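Hello everyone,

My group is preparing for a crystallization screen and wants a predicted model to guide construct design. The compound we'll soak is magnesium ion. Before spending weeks at the bench, it would help to have a computed complex in hand. I've included the protein sequence and the ligand's SMILES below. Output in structure-token form would be ideal because that's what our pipeline reads.
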Amino acid sequence: MSSSTIQEDLDEDVYHCDFTTASEWEIFIARLEEIIHEWKLSSSNANLLKPLKPGQLSSRNWVSKCENIMFADFQFSITRYSLTNEDDGETPESENLRDNDDENVKLQALEDMMHIDNDFIPVVYNDNISHPHVLARLYSLREFIVINPSSSAVAKYIAEESKIKILLSSICIAINNCSCEVPVFIQALEPWRNFHLGLCEGRGIRAEFEMVHLKKVPQDCKHLTGLLNVFKSRLGMMSGSEGEPVRVSAKFSYSLTDWTSYSWSQEPPNFELLQGEIGVEELGTLPFGASMEPVSELILHAVWPEFLETALVDSQAYSDLEPQRATNWFLSARMVDEPACLLSEYMFEILELCRSQHSMHEFLGDFMQQDSGPPLTTPFDVLTESKVPNIGKVIGQSFGHSRRDRSSRGPISNDMLMPILYFLFPDADNSQDSVRSPYPETIGNAMNREPNMAESTIGNGFKSAPIDGLVWRLAVVMAHAVHTLGGTKAAAHLWYEFCQELRFRWNNGIKIPGVAPGFPDLKMCLLNQKLQMLNCCIERRNAVTNAALASAKASGNSDESEEEEEEEEDDEFYDCAMSEEDVAKQTTVEKSKPIHSLWNRPVGRLCRHGNLKLLNSDEFLYIPITQEATPKTEDQIDEDAEVLLNLGSDIQGSELRTQLMSASLLSDIESFKAANPGAVLEDFIRWYSPRDWIEDKEPGEDGSVKGTLSSRMQIPGNPWLEIWSVAKPVPARRQNRLFDYTREAEKVLHRLDLSQPSDAARLLLCPLLHASLLRLVQQALPIEMPGLISAIKHISSKAETLFRVCEKDINRYAEICKEVAHAEAMIGQVASLEHKLCPGTGQTWQMKKFLSDLVVEPEVAVPGGPHSDIGKRIKSMFAEARRVVLMTNEADQDSSDGEKSKSKSSGLHGAIFPKPTEKEFILRVRAACQNSFLVMPHRLTVQLGPNGISMAGCFSQDTTFQ
Amino acid sequence: MDDSVLTTLKILIIGESGVGKSSLLMRFVDNEFNADQAITIGVDFKCKKISLNGNTIKLAIWDTAGQERFRTLTPSYYRDAQGAILVYDVTKKESFTKLETWLNELETYSTKSNIVKMVVGNKIDMENREVSRDDGMKFARRHATLFIESSAKTTDGVQCAFEELVQKIIQTPGLWETQEETSKRAAFRASSDDDAQQSSYCCGGYF
Ligand SMILES: Nc1nc2c(ncn2[C@@H]2O[C@H](COP(=O)(O)OP(=O)(O)OP(=O)(O)O)[C@@H](O)[C@H]2O)c(=O)[nH]1
Ligand SMILES: [Mg+2]
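Reply:
Good plan to model first. Here are the tokens for the complex, ready for your pipeline.
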């Protein structure tokens, strides 16, 4: 075989340029030498390196350096590929192997080539670029140089033999001039052919690297026997002549694509089947895994590492190379591109919903109209209704009875809807003795709860909702609704029912479950804040109502109620709850010291402020009952901040801001005045801002305290003075409410009512994504794939940031979902492989590692080889697939030519494995050949596959005795 | 120099009443000092553009009332702040011991988990010091915050306090940029790394 074969498939329109001009040639050689020197490859004294350990050629990192080089006006790039030393752990070998004379005539490249520990290393193709370089695989080289037409060259490749010859001889001159022992290759023909010719020279040896590609495989090249003959005849060794026998390594690959009973997929939850018996499990959990078989092909590689040509036979008639008898088995798994996965499907559907243009009305038009009329309910209804003692019954009615009829007409059937609503509002379920799916008690005090492994993996920075709280559950259930209960329509219906229930609860003073108590938590998502706000409103109003009821009861009991108390009943706005005790205390105090005239009788006292007395009288200083702080959700704060910002940053703006912010100061001063008739500003300051009251060191003559206001309080016209002067004594309960809970509640409900399906989806997006990531990480934790968890962490922090900055662009979230889909697919692949190869629980670490390696690595050794449990499992998979093939063949052929099929199938019956899809051989020999007296290393790498045969040979000769 | 604004940052000033929060802000923005600074009611704010390593950054600085009674009002405005200046008065031990509470407050209400904090000991021009520089430094180290001492009256340390805080915010990944701005930050970083080192040194800041 010679390089003439490259003439095959020549392209007509190959760029022509004259390489023969001597000067061009010399320039090329000079440049080549320059580069070799620059790369320090001319050190002929270099030590012979220790042989590589098994697999190092692919497991270690490769580095490459690249330069441009011209031949005439044709631009090439020249690249040096070399294996790094890094993960060796050993210090570079210091002893010089070349001390030995024997070693002095060895070339590193050829020694590597003859070493068997890195045979058949897997290469991975990425954008048509292989890693490691194909040459590393073909010749087991750890360092080499490749010259190929640069991407900017006029012609994309060279094909003329004459040009290749000129290039090769130029290389030959250059490497000799430089004493460079690193093999140099040139790439010819179209890049996809990976066709390389090269040479390596030094220490009296010249090795040539040749290649042949043939689409049609000659009959005698199909088996080892024939290939041995090709090898030997190229070497000029007579068959049967004495000399070292050829050493052979072989690798046969078998493909399996028919899964039969080994197929694997994850079913989505089917609520139809569960019919009203939907468990909390199904509702509260997002589905996970590949819904279709995610593995497309398993390839078994049977490998015989090294045997003598005489030990095993592989000919057309007979073969010893039976996969079951191979020394080692390796497995590769090919995956379906973007397999369908349940969790990511759910997420993409919600994203789709976020983009939806549909309105609630489109889906629920009639249904909504039929409903209870105008949503506004007067507070008086609320008062009467909340007197109903058994709350459970009231709620039960809310969606238990009154809605049952009409619900059945909604997109989600009543059978389905009720369990969902009970799941969201478990306290409403009075059909059972105990609540079926109560909210975790930890909601609201996450501080006291240790995050579990999964939760701490993705962090707690999500602008989400309490885990397994109402908003969380709603998000999950909404995803179910979209996926399995009827798409956008179902989502609209569910949202509508949710809003209805909220309104019912507001109207009836029943708190919303599954939300943390207290003011809206700005770290949570907006919907969660809104629900907290609604609860604040419900709580405040209930407090007021209860106080009113209590005092009504109290006055009802005593007919001879005193004037003062009667007056209190008249209070229209009884905002701040005062306990009966307080009222009683107050009255006794007032009775015993009737020093106040009726008009400035103190009201709204909370308690005495220590033993402080008013400056201008003998009265104690009382802390007044004040209005409570105002809860706000983030959108309201933003609005407020916007208003403040718009006032500008100058003095006037500052003053206006102070005015705006003074409402609570005014309220407090009024309360104070009401509780402390006859008090002066100084008294107020002593309670309110004690630092601004500077007490004299010496008490006054009469023992009373004396002091002055701080200078900043004395600034004429400062807000404190001004507000003090205009404030009237009004107890908190008679003041205008700073927090108008009715209005705020209506605002919340109104906003939720007005949400379109897309708005609802957006409100639920973060909790859903959060829940998805949690689900993902729970599935990922038991898997031995180091990169996976860190990838999920990375996705999480990306998602977290998006929500923090309130990213509006749905595409950005789609990117996140794609990454989730990718991770989910990998986990699905592991699950499928586990099902196929080693089903059963309690996998050992080694097994888990094997499974996840199959997903990420191109080729993985089967632990224990052909005779292990996995080996047996693989065998039975092949056997079953084979049976199916035979059965269908027989069925097909029964109707046609009976004779032929019989003979054919009988021959196949014994075999478990199909014909190999690929066969690879590496033939090695150290021998003296043709024109050389010395024993030299030679190698031939053969690949027989569906695309024909490719042979890569390296043949050496000595240059000294020629 | 690039005149376009790189980003707008929200910065909070918190601490006990009377420690000089408004005075620090006034000194930084208007370079004025008022011995009779009015007590702050609720929140106030001022804006200032500063130039850092050739980039213009707009600061919206929110001055909050330290006064106990306004505290229910102020934390709402902590939202989305990228930086917080915690001020105490070196002549009032109590204002220093209360810092712990302020940090908790910040922890609870700030929406950014990696908000940059700077502890400032103010009024160092006064003689009756009750908190040593060392104590302040130790506190800062314990809570992993920046630290500086200042005087709104004499201007000592005021400029530095703000500039260093901003510098640190800009260097904190994910704190101020949205995804599109990542490249801007990278560009910023490349040009400023060395200067950053220097400025923190010359100001005597501590991290
Ligand atoms: N000597 C001296 N006095 C200062 C300094 N900073 C502030 N002051 C004075 O301390 C007093 C309080 O200052 P403010 O700036 O109003 O304090 P604040 O922290 O804003 O107080 P609140 O608004 O109540 O939270 C004023 O009288 C200032 O003049 C300083 O550095 N040195
Ligand atoms: Mg102030």
